[in-house]
Design a protein that fits this description.
Elements lengths: L1 H19 L23 E6 L4 E6 L5 E7 L4 E4 L4 E4 L4 E11 L2 E2 L4 E7 L6 H8 L5 E7 L7 E4 L9 E2 L14 E6 L5 E7 L5 E4 L19 E4 L3 E10 L2 E5 L8 E2 L2 H5 L2 E7 L4 E6 L4 E8 L2
Parallel strand pairs: 14-18
Antiparallel strand pairs: 1-2, 2-5, 3-4, 3-6, 6-7, 6-8, 9-12, 9-21, 10-11, 10-21, 12-13, 13-16, 14-15, 16-17, 17-19, 19-20, 20-21
Amino acid sequence: MNKTIVKILFAILLPIFINSCSEKDYGGADSSLIPNIDNYKNMFSINVVSDSNYVTFNLNAPDVYPIWSYNDGTSNVVSTINGLSQIVHPAGTYTVTAKVANKYGISSGSVTLTYTLTKDFIDKNLFKYLCGSTGSSTKQWVWNSTVDGHFGCGPDASNPTGWWSCGANGKAGVGMYDDIFTFGYAGSGLSGAYTYDPGVGGTIYVNAGCSFNPFNAFNPHNNNDYQATVALQNTTWAFKYEGKDLYLTFPANTLVGYVPNIETYNTPKFKILSLTDNKLSMACYNGSIAWKYEFTPKK
């Protein structure tokens, strides 16, 4: 009996369901109601907070929503958020393409908006980690020699120990672990003072392939890395963004504890892998090989 009742109810209700979805209730896609971008060109705005590089994209129109398209430094981004906000670290002029849309469709045209950031934005904590304070201060670092992987090489800066990773104290006695790296900050700007102290031994460790001056005179040319006598060096350091990657940069010929190749000697630039109060991990890359450097605060 129960099955009979179900069949009767189905027969009664089916016409009701069909009528509720009849064509007369479906409006369809009306192309004339798709928004025209020309009507909204003056309703877009980009707000930039210069002190923090905080950027907000807005569309002041209640009947449509925006479609933003832009590159964030590493990939292409598409978003429909009205009031989309983000921090953009590198300085530069940026382009954003915007469309408008509603339930009937997306505008066939678009508008191009631009905004300019006059300086890189660096998290203030990074200055504190590197130099000891966001005010005027200095901090000394040494090789993090007691941990595995403090030094090594690999195929690129994202995998700088992929080919070889130095074990704890693996380079004792070659003039590396007495080096002292001092970073100073005056409390403003994106750079500061840097001092390289070769330590009591007065030498820096150099890759066997480095046969250029001023190191060539110390190279035994036996395919082994070697030590070269150098003097204490006073120069500068700077933070620099490239896309979303933050780099620690130095003037040409700055010494940073190991000389791997002429490219790094001529253009010392290190991608920061990690920077905390207790660790500075970074890598240089000349297009063929990356080298990892990991420092810890001097005690």
